[in-house]
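Write out this protein's structure.
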Amino acid sequence: MKSARTRFVLVFAALVILSTSAIAEAQVDDTAFGNGALSHLTKGNDDTALGAVALFQNTSGSSNTATGSEALADNTTANSNTATGAFALRDNTSGDGNTATGEGALFENTTHSDNTAVGLEALTFNDADDNTAVGAYALEFNVSGFYNTASGFEALQNNSTGSQNTAHGVFAMVTNTSGYNNTASGVAAMFSNTTGYDNTSSGSQSLYHNMSGHDNTASGMNSLLSNTSGFFNSAAGFQALFSNTTGSNNSAQGANALFKNSTGTYNTATGVNALLFDTGSQNTGTGADAL
């Protein structure tokens, strides 16, 4: 018959084995390097934290990678996030599948998922899903806008609630706030747009001054450059419909076509310099230099 001392030793040993087994089961393939990195981990697996306070609050989140001081510091239960850079995804708690590369990228994202931010402070204030920002300060102030894609320095920087916008180029759609379904390609394309929607702009400074105009198509450098609130205009060619501000339902095909038109409506100009000096409405000019 075992003595009380022997039974105590056996029970203690069993408890130690169970405790060790539970810890081993709870934490599998985790790597931490840096003061406070992964300090609160209890159940998460396959996490990597490199940097002071990286993944500091993580308890059960798995498959996260944080590289940089305070990267993913507040993450608790979220999975499959990658943060590279100081303060990248700093405030994320339960958002999954985010990628942030660059200091402060996706800094304030907390619960939202499937965002990609590459660049200094890209998507810093984001509180929405499914956005992609590539470039320093791209989509920096986005709050609730979703399905946006910004590529270029400060592209869509001030977007807050606008959704389904695509901006490619330095300063493209930089002032957009709530405009939606816009596509801007080129340096400073749709630079001034704030609330305009369903516009397509291709070319440097195309639709540059557009603010609230909608359903416009501009293709070519400086095309529809002065448009502010005009709608249903189509301009193809260098400086086509250059001076148009509030005019609507115009079509200009060719360099400098309808160049002087500002408020005229329902004009059609086809050809280089067609209706160059025309400012009226319901005119048609076909051919180079047509009046």
